C-alpha cells in the first residue's frame, strides 16, 4: 500500500502507458479506471506488498497531470505533447522500431527528427523514474519504447537496480544493424543489470548485437562493455545479463471468468446467433501487419474456393481490434483486409450464412472469454510475434477440454505450446492443411493436445513470469564501482 506521505518508492515500474484510463464526465469530473491488460495484472501481484510507483504516459496529449495514488500504487504521469506522440510514439516506436524488430515485414522508416524525439522523451521518463525511486530501489522498465531509459537512470542513480523487459522480438544483428542509432540503443539498454526477453533467440540476438556493434565481450549470457565509444578503454564498465523469461497470463483469473455462468450463457448465445455451425474458426488480433491476417484470409479464401469448408457448417469469426490508426502502414493494412473480407463474403456467403464475420471492434474481457469458448479452432498465425498471449488465453479459457489451436512457429508461444497444430503462415498450402487437420482430427487427439497446453500455461503463469524476472534481476552481476564516466553521454 502507498502511504500518502511517501515521495519515493522501493519498487518502480516504467512503461509507455500508465495502467489507468482517464474519463472526464460532462460536469468535468475526472475519473481513472484500471485499464484491462496483462501487464497490469502481472504487476499487481508483484506490487501488492510493496511501496510501489508506476511511471508512464496518461493517455492524452499535453501537460502531465500531478502524480496521484489509486489506492494500490503511486501513479506518476509523464507528459507527451502532440508532437511527441507523432514523433516518439507513432514515429520512432511504431514506424521505426516495431517493423525493424518484427523481421522488417514492412520497411522501417528512419527519420532523425523521430530519433531526437525518442531520446528526449526517454530522458523525461528517466527523470521521472529518478524522482520517485528510493535509495537502492528496484526499477523495472518495459519495452521497446524505453530502451534508452536504463542508461539514463544508471548515470543519475548508480544506487538503483535496473531491469528491462522486451515484450517484442529482438531482431538478428543482420537486421538490427540497419538502425542508424544502433550503438546508442545498445548503450541505452546496457544501463540495465538484467535484460529479459521472450525467447532464448531474442536474448542471443541482443548479445550478438552487443558484440558486433559495440565490440563488447560476451561470455554465456553475460555482456561486459567498457563504456567507451572511441576504442579507448577506461569508460564506465558495464556488466549485464540477458536471458529469456517468457511472459504469461493470469491463468486462474481467466479460468474462473470463463467458467462463470454468465460467460457460459453468453457463449451459448453467440453460437446460436452464428446459426449453430458445426465448426467455428476464430481469430483475435490487434489489426497489425505482424499478426498474419492477410495470409490467414488467403488460406480461408482458398479453402472456401476448394469446397473444403463452407457456411453454414463452417464459419470464420475474425476480431480485428483497432490499432495505431494514424500510422500509414496500418491504414493500408486495414484497406487490404477489408477488401479481402468483402471479396470472400461476396463469393462465398449466402443470405443468412456468412463465410467471414469480421469485427473491427474492441470487446470486454467477458465477451472475449465467451468467444474463446465458442471457437472450435483458434487461428493464431502471426508472421512474427514476441509471445502472443491470445494463444495462452484460448487454451486456458477452454476449461471444458475442447477446441484446437493452430499456432504459427514464429511466435514466442510456439516455444512453449508444443502440442499446438504448428504452422508456417508463409506456406499457404501447409497452412490450409494444418487448419483442416485441426478441424478433422479425432476428438481424443485434440483433447490430449489441449490438456498438455493448459497444464503448461497453468504452471507457467504470469506470477511465475514476474517472480522469475525479479529473481534474475536480484541475482544479476554485482554492479561495478561508481561509474567514472557517463554512459548516456554517449547516446
Ligand atoms: C505485445 C507483443 C506479447 C485483443 N483484443 C481485445 C483484447 N485483446 C487482448 C488479448 C491479449 C492482448 O490484448 C494482446 O496481446 P498479444 O500478446 O496477443 O499481442 P500484442 O498486443 O501485440 O502484445 C506480444 C505481448 O506484448 C505481451 O508481452 O505477447 O508478442 O506484441 O491479452 O486478449 N482484449 C479485450 N478486448 C479486445 O477486443 N478485452
Automatic annotation (TrEMBL):
Xref: CDD domains:
GT20_TPS (cd03788)
**Which superkingdom does the taxonomy of this entry point to?**
Bacteria
Q: Which GO terms describe its molecular function?
A: alpha,alpha-trehalose-phosphate synthase (UDP-forming) activity; trehalose-phosphatase activity
Q: Which GO terms describe its biological process?
A: trehalose biosynthetic process
Gene Ontology cellular component?
A: cytosol
The record, for InterPro entries, names:
Glyco_trans_20
Which family does the entry's similarity section mention? Belongs to the glycosyltransferase 20 family.
Q: What is the designated name of this protein?
A: Trehalose-6-phosphate synthase
Give the species.
Ornithinimicrobium tianjinense
Amino acid at each position: 500500500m502507498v502511504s500518502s506521505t511517501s515521495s519515493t518508492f522501493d519498487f518502480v515500474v516504467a512503461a509507455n502507458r500508465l495502467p489507468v484510463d482517464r474519463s472526464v464526465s460532462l460536469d468535468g469530473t475526472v475519473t481513472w479506471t484500471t485499464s484491462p491488460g496483462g501487464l497490469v495484472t502481472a504487476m499487481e501481484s508483484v506490487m501488492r506488498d510493496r511501496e510501489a510507483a508506476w511511471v508512464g504516459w496518461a493517455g492524452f496529449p499535453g501537460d502531465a497531470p500531478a502524480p496521484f495514488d489509486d489506492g494500490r500504487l503511486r501513479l506518476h504521469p509523464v507528459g507527451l505533447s502532440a508532437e511527441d506522440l507523432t514523433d516518439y510514439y507513432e514515429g520512432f516506436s511504431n514506424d521505426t522500431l516495431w517493423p525493424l524488430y518484427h523481421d522488417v515485414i514492412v520497411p522501417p522508416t528512419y527519420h532523425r527528427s523521430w530519433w531526437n524525439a525518442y531520446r528526449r522523451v526517454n530522458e523525461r521518463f528517466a527523470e521521472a523514474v529518478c524522482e520517485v525511486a528510493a535509495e537502492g530501489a528496484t526499477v523495472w522498465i518495459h519495452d521497446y519504447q524505453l530502451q534508452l531509459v536504463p542508461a539514463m537512470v544508471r548515470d543519475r542513480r548508480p544506487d538503483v537496480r535496473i531491469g528491462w523487459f522486451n515484450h517484442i522480438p529482438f531482431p538478428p544483428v543482420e537486421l538490427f544493424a540497419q538502425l542508424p542509432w544502433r550503438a546508442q540503443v545498445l548503450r541505452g539498454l546496457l544501463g540495465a543489470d538484467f535484460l529479459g526477453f521472450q525467447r532464448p533467440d531474442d536474448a542471443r540476438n541482443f548479445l550478438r548485437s552487443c558484440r558486433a556493434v559495440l565490440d563488447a565481450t560476451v561470455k554465456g549470457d553475460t555482456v561486459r562493455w567498457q563504456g567507451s565509444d572511441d576504442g579507448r578503454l577506461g569508460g564506465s564498465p558495464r556488466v549485464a545479463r540477458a536471458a529469456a523469461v517468457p511472459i504469461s497470463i493470469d491463468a486462474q483469473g481467466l479460468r474462473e471468468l470463463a467458467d462463470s455462468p454468465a460467460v457460459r450463457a453468453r457463449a451459448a448465445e453467440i453460437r446460436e446467433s452464428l446459426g449453430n455451425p458445426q465448426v467455428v474458426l476464430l481469430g483475435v488480433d490487434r489489426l497489425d501487419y505482424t499478426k498474419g491476417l492477410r495470409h490467414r484470409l488467403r488460406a480461408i479464401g482458398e479453402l472456401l474456393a476448394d469446397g473444403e469448408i463452407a457456411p453454414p457448417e463452417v464459419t470464420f469469426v475474425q476480431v480485428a481490434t483497432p490499432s495505431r490508426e494514424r500510422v500509414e502502414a496500418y491504414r493500408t493494412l486495414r484497406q487490404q483486409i477489408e477488401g479481402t473480407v468483402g471479396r470472400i463474403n461476396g463469393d462465398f456467403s449466402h443470405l443468412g450464412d456468412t463465410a467471414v464475420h469480421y469485427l473491427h471492434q474492441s470487446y470486454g474481457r467477458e465477451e472475449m472469454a465467451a468467444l474463446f469458448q465458442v471457437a472450435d479452432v483458434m487461428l493464431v498465425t502471426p508472421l512474427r510475434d514476441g509471445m502472443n498471449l491470445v494463444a495462452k488465453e484460448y487454451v486456458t479459457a477452454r476449461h471444458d477440454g475442447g477446441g484446437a489451436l493452430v499456432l504459427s512457429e514464429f511466435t514466442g508461444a510456439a516455444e512453449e505450446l508444443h502440442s499446438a497444430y504448428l504452422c508456417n503462415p508463409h506456406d499457404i498450402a501447409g497452412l490450409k492443411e494444418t487448419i483442416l487437420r485441426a478441424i478433422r482430427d479425432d476428438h481424443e487427439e485434440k483433447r490430449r493436445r489441449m490438456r498438455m497446453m493448459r497444464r503448461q500455461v497453468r504452471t507457467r503463469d504470469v506470477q511465475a513470469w514476474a517472480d522469475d524476472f525479479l529473481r534474475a534481476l536480484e541475482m544479476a552481476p554485482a554492479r561495478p564501482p561508481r561509474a567514472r564516466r557517463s554512459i548516456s553521454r554517449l547516446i
